[in-house]
Design a protein that fits this description.
The protein has six helices and nine strands, in the order ββαβαβαβαβαβαββ. A seven-stranded mixed beta sheet has the order 5-4-3-6-7-9-8, sandwiched between helices. A two-stranded antiparallel ribbon has the order 1-2. The mean pLDDT is 90. 39% of the residues are buried. It has helices at 29-39, 57-64, 77-90, 102-108, 127-134, 154-160; strands at 2-5, 15-18, 47-50, 69-74, 95-99, 113-118, 138-148, 162-170, 173-180. A hairpin with a 2-residue loop joins strand 8 and strand 9.
C-alpha cells in the first residue's frame, strides 16, 4: 500500500494510505496545492462532497483546511474502511463516510454543498455523468472541482449550467475548477 500526504492545514504532512485498486489515482500534491491556492487556503465553514473519495485526499485536505462538513462517498468497501480508519486516526469529526455509488447518491440527493469534488476512477469515462449529477448539489456561490483524462468540453458545461473558472494540467491529469453559470439578463 502506498500513500500521499495532506499538504496544508491542521493535518499537514499526515499520511493517507492508498490501496492498489483499479482506477485509483490520488490527486497529486502539486495539483492539490494549485486547487487550494485557487480556492484560498482557508475553507472554514464550508460544506464539501467528495463524490468518488478513493484515498480521501481531496476530502481530508478540505477538512484539514477548516471545512465544517465533508461527506465522502465510496462504493468500494475496502476503500471505505480505509477512509474510516483515517477519519478515526485524525479525529476528523467533521468527516462522514458513506458506502454508496456516487452517481446514484447524487442523483437522489437534495443537499447543497459549497464544493463538490468530482474525481471518478481514472479512465472510467464517468466525468460527464458525474458533472451532470453534481450540478444540482452546488450551492449558489459554490463550485465543482473536476479531475479527468482530458479537458472538459465547453459545450457540456453550457448544457449543464457550469462555467470554467480555472484549469490546469499535470501529466495525464486535467483539472478544472467550475462555477455555476451566470444566467443571461433580459
Amino acid at each position: 500500500m502506498n500513500g500521499v500526504r495532506i499538504i496544508g492545514g491542521a493535518w499537514k504532512r499526515s499520511k493517507l494510505p492508498v490501496a492498489d485498486r483499479p482506477g485509483l489515482r490520488p490527486t497529486p500534491d502539486r495539483v492539490r496545492e494549485t486547487l487550494f491556492n485557487w480556492l484560498g487556503q482557508d475553507l472554514t465553514g464550508w460544506s464539501c462532497l467528495d463524490a468518488f473519495a478513493g484515498s480521501g485526499a481531496l476530502g481530508f485536505e478540505a477538512a484539514s483546511r477548516g471545512a465544517a462538513h465533508v461527506l465522502m462517498l465510496e462504493s468500494d468497501l475496502q476503500l471505505a474502511r480505509s477512509l474510516a480508519l483515517t477519519r478515526e486516526r485524525l479525529h476528523a469529526e467533521q468527516v462522514r463516510i458513506e458506502v454508496a455509488d456516487a452517481l446514484d447518491w447524487m442523483g437522489r440527493s437534495e443537499a447543497a454543498f459549497d464544493l463538490v469534488f468530482v474525481d471518478p476512477p481514472f479512465g472510467a469515462g464517468l466525468s460527464e455523468r458525474a458533472l451532470a449529477a453534481a450540478r444540482p448539489l452546488v450551492a449558489p456561490d459554490g463550485g465543482v472541482y473536476l479531475e479527468a483524462t482530458r479537458p472538459v468540453d465547453p459545450r457540456l458545461l453550457d448544457r449543464i449550467g457550469l462555467s470554467l473558472h480555472r484549469a490546469g494540467r499535470a501529466g495525464a491529469v486535467h483539472f478544472h475548477l467550475l462555477r455555476l453559470a451566470k444566467l443571461a439578463g433580459p
